[in-house]
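U., I forgot to send this yesterday:
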Amino acid sequence: MAHSNDPGDPAMNRTAADPAASRSTATLLSDALTHVSGLIRKEMDLARAEMSSKVTQAGVAVGLIVGAVVLLLSALNVLSAALVAGLARLFTGPIADEAAIASATAWAALIVGVIFFVIAIILAKKGMNDLKATNLAPTRTAESVKRDAYAVKESVNG
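Result:
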């Protein structure tokens, strides 16, 4: 069936009234590709920013682990000193003045060593927990991509 050139023809009026209908398929495709490439560019920027944040978080976690190792080494030194002082007390015999000094030194070193040890364990656990893969994944970007994919699917399906 041929279309007429009559201005009263509904096909002719639809094109004049609807600007989207007058755009060519190539123009519509070009616009769609521009929007998709812009969307992909924005998603990449978001992923880059989020990964930068996650790298900073991992750096802090590594710093906590290094701090824990330093304190752990200090705790081992102090605990070693406490053990040495305690053993020295056992070997010194019943000399009152020296025994009291040796005992007080051993207990003080033991208390400081245990405190350092507990702090080191807390720092190490916190650092290890912060380095888990689930904490470093770019979750905001993944959620944004899912929302975008859903929006595109909905717009295509009507």
